[in-house]
C-alpha cells in the first residue's frame, strides 16, 4: 500500500514570522492526519520553520537545491545545508524552475542524485504545457522528464523518490485536470515508464502526486484515483484551513 503524501509548496511567499505562524497553524490543523504531511518554505524560512514544527507529524521540505557539495556557486544551497536546517524532502524540477531558471533534465538528474546521496528524498516534478497537450505530446513529454530524472538511478534509489505529475496548464490557473485526465497520466507513468525503467513491483511502490490547482473541494475525487498518491499544493497551501481540507481528504 502506498501511503498518501501531501506537500505544500509555498513558493516565494511568507516572511520568516509569517512562515512560522503558518507552520504552527498547519501542525494544529492537520493533527491526526493519515497522509504524510510536508511543508516547503523558502530557504531562509527553513530553520525557523523546523523549530516551529519540531516534535510534530509535519515534515520539512525545500523547494530546490544545488547538486555541488560546496564552493563558489553564489546564491546556491547544498544538500548538507538543507540537512542541517532539518529538511527531509526536496522538490526538484518544478515547472517554474524549468521555464524561468533553465532547469533541464540534466540538472534535474544531477540534483536527484545529489539529494539521494545525501540521504534526502526528492519530489521530482514532471508535466506538459498546454501547447504540448494540445499537440498530443503529453505522454512523450512526461516520459522524457521521467527518463531524464531517473537516468543512472538504481532500483533502491528509485524506491526513495516521489514523482509529482503537474500539468503546467493547471499550475496556479484554477484549471485543475479532471480526475480522468490525471489518472490517465499517472497510470502511464507507473505502468509504462517506471515499469520499463525498473519493474512492475518497483513501479507499484513509487508514490506519484498530482499537482496543479488542487484544492479542498477537488482533492478527494483526485485522491481516490488508483494511481494518485497525494498532492503537491501551491496556492491552497498558503492558508492552513485550505491545506487542512486537502490533507484530511
Ligand atoms: P498550485 O501550484 O496548487 O497553485 O496550482 C502547484 C505547484 O506549482 O506545485
Automatic annotation (TrEMBL):
Chief place of localization: cytoplasm
Pathway: Carbohydrate biosynthesis; gluconeogenesis; Carbohydrate degradation; glycolysis; D-glyceraldehyde 3-phosphate from glycerone phosphate: step 1/1
Compartments where found: Cytoplasm
Keyword DNA-binding in record: no
Reactions listed under catalytic activity: D-glyceraldehyde 3-phosphate = dihydroxyacetone phosphate
Residues bound to substrate: 9-11, 172, 213, 234-235
Keywords, ordered alphabetically: Cytoplasm, Gluconeogenesis, Glycolysis, Isomerase
Stretch forming the signal peptide: none
Catalytic residues as annotated in Swiss-Prot or TrEMBL: 94 (electrophile), 166 (proton acceptor)
Gene3D superfamilies, sorted: Aldolase class I
Keyword set includes Ribosomal protein: no
GO biological process, alphabetically ordered: gluconeogenesis; glyceraldehyde-3-phosphate biosynthetic process; glycerol catabolic process; glycolytic process
InterPro entries, sorted: Aldolase_TIM, TIM_sf, TrioseP_Isoase_bac/euk, Triosephosphate_isomerase, Triosephosphate_isomerase_AS
GO cellular component, one term: cytosol
Subunit structure: Homodimer.
Name assigned to this protein: Triosephosphate isomerase
Organism: Candidatus Raymondbacteria bacterium RIFOXYD12_FULL_49_13
Amino acid at each position: 500500500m502506498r501511503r498518501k503524501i501531501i506537500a505544500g509548496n509555498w513558493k516565494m511567499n511568507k516572511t520568516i514570522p509569517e512562515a512560522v505562524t503558518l507552520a504552527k497553524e498547519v501542525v494544529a490543523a492537520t493533527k491526526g492526519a493519515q497522509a504524510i504531511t510536508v511543508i516547503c518554505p523558502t530557504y531562509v524560512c527553513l530553520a525557523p520553520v523546523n523549530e516551529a514544527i519540531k516534535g510534530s507529524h509535519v515534515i520539512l521540505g525545500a523547494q530546490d537545491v544545488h547538486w555541488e557539495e560546496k564552493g563558489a556557486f553564489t546564491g546556491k544551497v547544498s544538500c548538507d545545508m538543507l540537512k542541517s536546517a532539518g529538511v527531509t524532502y526536496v522538490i526538484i524540477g518544478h515547472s517554474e524552475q524549468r521555464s524561468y531558471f533553465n532547469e533541464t533534465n540534466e540538472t534535474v538528474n544531477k540534483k536527484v542524485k545529489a539529494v539521494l546521496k545525501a540521504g534526502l528524498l526528492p519530489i521530482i516534478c514532471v508535466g506538459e504545457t498546454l501547447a504540448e497537450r494540445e499537440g498530443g505530446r503529453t505522454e512523450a513529454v512526461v516520459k522524457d522528464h521521467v527518463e531524464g530524472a531517473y537516468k543512472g538511478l538504481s532500483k533502491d534509489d528509485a524506491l526513495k523518490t516521489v514523482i509529482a505529475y503537474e500539468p503546467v496548464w493547471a499550475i496556479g490557473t484554477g484549471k485543475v485536470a479532471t480526475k480522468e485526465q490525471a489518472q490517465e497520466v499517472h497510470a502511464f507513468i507507473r505502468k509504462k515508464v517506471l515499469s520499463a525503467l525498473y519493474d512492475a513491483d518497483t513501479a507499484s511502490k513509487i508514490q506519484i502526486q498530482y499537482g496543479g490547482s488542487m484544492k479542498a473541494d477537488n482533492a478527494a475525487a483526485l485522491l481516490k484515483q488508483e494511481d494518485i498518491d497525494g498532492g503537491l499544493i501551491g496556492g491552497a497551501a498558503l492558508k492552513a484551513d485550505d491545506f487542512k481540507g486537502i490533507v484530511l481528504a
